[in-house]
What does this fold into?
Amino acid sequence: MKAKAAILFEVGKKLDLREVEVEPPRTGEVLLKMGAAGICHSDLHVMTGHLVAPLPAILGHEGSGTVAEVGPGVTNVKPGDRVIPLWRLSCGICEYCSDSRPALCVEGTQIRMTGRLLDGSTRFKLDGKEIKHFAGVSSFSEYSVIPARALVKIPADFPLDRAALLGCGVITGVGAVFNAARVKPGSRVAVFGAGGVGINVIQGAAIAGAEKIIAVDLLPNKLDFARRFGATHTINARETNPVEAIKALTGGKGVEYAFEVIGQPATIRQAYDSMGKRGMAVVVGVTPMTAEISIPIMTLVFEERVLTGSVYGSSRPWIDIPMLINLYQAGKLKLDELLTARYPFSQINEAYEALERGEGLRSVVTF
Ligand code: APR
Ligand code: ZN
Ligand code: ZN
It folds into this structure.
């Protein structure tokens, strides 16, 4: 079948909207009719070359849609089901899958690195030539073929635009708080970067009952959003040294948890420096592959600090996505306020330009 899709042919170029040929789903695969796709910074990292992906590819890793067709052997979903595709496929039985970290499964890495599904081929073609998948999702297409094991079913009446946000920004941010850091009630938290993912770290910390939530960003509009999502204090790092300001706000002690949700060595170091004894810094932002930082080693020993990272919210999506839906339906998780713009799919490049200008929080394209 034919589908309109946004293809990245080369680093540094805009997305090209083209009609591609989508092959039917094979064994264990599903044809997904996309409802909405999220405009996340990680796709932009690929467009600018900060992150490497096999090209040409149909980008997009945050999305939601309706199952249109299932391939042989698929039993977990059926045509008509609403689902969220996961950008990390997992086998379900390896040591990481069995121990609550499916995002670390080798199957997800294989799809991400090759741009091909597990049988080593792609389901997209343009003029007879192979077009790559991105992270096994490729949500920037009217139709995509996705492994059935990478789908999480959602309620039939759940709005697809807000569902899309759960698949990356929300689960990554809230999951980093709940699963990676396990933020304790009454604790002090700093969040570097209050964009689409960082704002979800902020609301996750608020739900977890943190006492102080200090948001750091360069843009006043992001800091306004941060306050609306639960930040108790905000710091504009363009005007103020954030490490000194965080120390001052915590009686000189520093925070118990610092999250970096930008993806820059300098801000990762700032997050490290703003924690206190027995503090934990969690890197969520994605840096270029070769980026490094240095830290004063003795603070690891004499202050028992922890520096770690979190991928995909360190989540178990089949448990965490239903939990996030329950929190939203109970009025505790803000999704309506998170979705600050909707664009028609034809305006996907405009949506990315708005992200680069720092407008809004999270936007989607709809199909
Ligand atoms: N200090 C503080 N804030 C900064 C700085 C800085 N030096 N540089 C950038 N920021 C802020 C931006 O102003 C923006 O609000 O970081 C925020 C980044 O947010 P988005 O662009 O919306 O990106 P998002 O989709 O949230 O992704 C953030 O997480 O998943 C990863 O790949 C993703 O690395 C990216 C990061
Ligand atoms: Zn993302
Ligand atoms: Zn596995």
